[in-house]
Amino acid sequence: MTQTFDIAVFHGDGIGPEIMAPTLDILGRMAEASDGYGLRFHDAPAGAAHYAATGDSLPETSMQIARNADAILLSAMGLPDIRYEDGTEISPQIDLRKALTLFAGVRPVRVRQGQPTPLNLPKGKEIDFVLIRESTEGLFYTQGCGDVRPDEARETLRITRDISEKLFRFAFDMAQTRRAAGRGQGRVTCVDKANVFRAFAFFREIFDAEAARHPDLTADHAYVDAMALWMVQKPWDFDVLVTENMFGDILSDLGAGLMGGLGLAPSADIGLDHAVFQPCHGSAPDIAGQGLANPLAMILSAAMMLDWLGIKHDNPALAQDGRRLREAVEDVIARGAALTRDIGGTAGTAAAAQAVTDALFVA
């Protein structure tokens, strides 16, 4: 019997609905063509515009839809001119991370030969690594609650054994899965600042304990400043990088830069029971409603969702369609077909999405 999966859909703010619509269309067509799975989409209202209209940025009904779903697909959220009364940004995506304990922020970085990149890729080299960012604590622990005084301000960095053990177990499992799929050498690198901060020495100690449980995989360390250098000098050397929240926040944008920009950067936030898939970029209200937004990061995030569902539920059809969708986007980028203006082209949202659809169903 065909497995049918419930997907909570947060359409987002600004360009969010514009990039979500073609993504859902593609997912619906893929599911309809498959005899291995089905998808049911459930709208979950939330975000800055919803807050402006109702006074609630993440209604309990939407949270319940997310909790009950098999996966959560979330578009760009937030608007700069709509904020909470204390001046902080409205970001339901962070609320979801904390409420659902989505400790593993997954940021894939992939550049094939022929794909535009600021780097000069040596012949025969491609970039294919994953940055895993702890997403619930670290330097984001006191987000919005820092201690600000007239002459100084303090934030608290928090690293717990419980979350770190889950994070590192996830990272080594991913390295194992990537190696089995022929996409990685089975290497996990802990990125920290253990030479300066005791909290990161603690972080590294927990990493080493988990590494000892995986003698078939390679484990090593890198200081975050050195990693920023190496991600530019030799990004093809890496497989799985795992790091603290703030370091991961910074390095993931560097990874997006290697791919050509945030418009090509997908992401996932994954816990033991739930997962959110969303593009790394913002809601770009300055171009909202003009049909100019780049939908590729949203579509790549949907590909990650299919892959995760396939692995979690042992459903090869889902995993295969996740790969097909990712490769279709990569093909569009490598051929320079229907690229949006943020990545050097002139195409609009509809044309870029149609190019992916054609790569899937026409080519």
Automatic annotation (TrEMBL):
Entry keyword set: Amino-acid biosynthesis, Branched-chain amino acid biosynthesis, Leucine biosynthesis, Magnesium, Manganese, Metal-binding, NAD, Oxidoreductase
Gene3D superfamilies tied to this protein: Isopropylmalate Dehydrogenase
A molecular-function term among this protein's GO annotations: magnesium ion binding
Keyword Translocase: no
Cofactor(s) listed: Mn(2+); Mg(2+)
Top EC class of this enzyme: oxidoreductase
SUPFAM superfamilies listed in its UniProt record: Isocitrate/Isopropylmalate dehydrogenase-like (SSF53659)
GO biological process, any: L-leucine biosynthetic process
Subunit structure comment from the entry: Homodimer.
Family: Belongs to the isocitrate and isopropylmalate dehydrogenases family. LeuB type 1 subfamily.
Protein name: 3-isopropylmalate dehydrogenase
Organism: Aliishimia ponticola
Biological classification of the source: Bacteria, Pseudomonadati, Pseudomonadota, Alphaproteobacteria, Rhodobacterales
